[in-house]
UniProtKB/TrEMBL annotation:
InterPro entries, sorted: GntR_C, TF_FadR/GntR_C, Tscrpt_reg_HTH_GntR, WH-like_DNA-bd_sf, WH_DNA-bd_sf
Keywords annotated in UniProt: DNA-binding, Transcription, Transcription regulation
Calcium is among the record's keywords: no
SUPFAM superfamilies on file: GntR ligand-binding domain-like, Winged helix' DNA-binding domain
CDD domains: WHTH_GntR
Species the sequence originates in: Streptomyces xanthochromogenes
PROSITE patterns noted in UniProt: HTH_GNTR
SMART domains referenced in this protein's UniProt entry, alphabetically: FCD (SM00895), HTH_GNTR (SM00345)
Name of the molecule in the record: GntR family transcriptional regulator
Domain HTH gntR-type: 9-76
Length: 231
């Protein structure tokens, strides 16, 4: 279980994960009413445990309950994709290409602005983290796992260096999407993108907010086959 997983323990976690799986694999589609007695038997849990699982998924925007209708799956547009568990379940179920296109649009809106703020607010610790991720990129070679790890470290460090608490929180969306995209044909250890990442760090180090903004846009506009893990 990843550290982003639902933090409940034992049967409670089993119930939440099992019910979420049934929603994301299409066993229960949006608008479907849950068959609670059948779910209790399938999951091997008590009514109390299942009720708690329903509460968790209701809070995450997946479920709702109405008198005479019962508990049902909400429309996908209502699912809270900014929730780390919901995003994890979505990615594990196999997100379509347009999902990653939406993530890229989000990144184009957020990361250049974060880089501009980083140029203004970065600390020596922030610069060390960015430099460390560049070193890891250069050392990754053709190892796709190390390449993805270095890339996610870079983008996480960049968001952190903005010192904007909301941008920092978006690591929870961007990093899992980068990891998932890296597992779907990411380019691995190509050397070409390293200078593009290095240009971002140079602008941040020099306090050049406009330069950092444009450098991130250019990085995100690299052809997919030339990016580190889709970056």
């Amino acid at each position: 279980m990843s550290e982003a997983a639902y933090v409940g323990r034992g049967v409670h976690r089993t119930a939440v994960e099992g019910l979420a799986l049934r929603i994301f694999d299409g066993t229960y589609d949006e608008g479907d009413t849950l068959e609670l007695p059948a779910l209790m038997a399938e999951l091997g849990v008590s009514q109390t445990v299942l009720r708690e699982a329903v509460k968790v998924l209701t809070a995450k925007g997946l479920l709702d309950a109405r008198q005479k209708r019962g508990t049902f799956v909400r429309p996908r547009a209502d699912w809270n994709l900014l929730d780390s568990d919901v995003l994890r379940w979505k990615l594990a179920a196999g997100a379509p290409p347009d999902f990653f296109a939406d993530v890229l649009e989000l990144r184009r809106a957020i990361e250049p602005a974060a880089a501009s703020l980083a140029a203004e607010h970065r600390t020596e610790e922030d610069l060390a983290a960015l430099d460390g991720s560049l070193t890891a990129m250069r050392s990754a070679g053709a190892d796709p796992v190390l390449a993805v790890r270095a890339d996610t470290a870079f983008h996480s460090a960049l968001l952190t260096a903005s010192h904007n608490r909301f941008f920092v929180q978006l690591r929870r969306v961007i990093v899992p999407a980068l990891v998932a995209r890296g597992g779907h044909g990411g380019s691995g250890g190509q050397a070409g993108p390293v200078p593009a990442h290095a240009e971002v760090v140079r602008s941040v180090r020099e306090g050049d907010g406009d330069g950092a903004y444009m450098a991130v846009l250019e990085l995100l506009d690299l052809p997919a086959g030339a990016r580190w893990a889709g970056a």
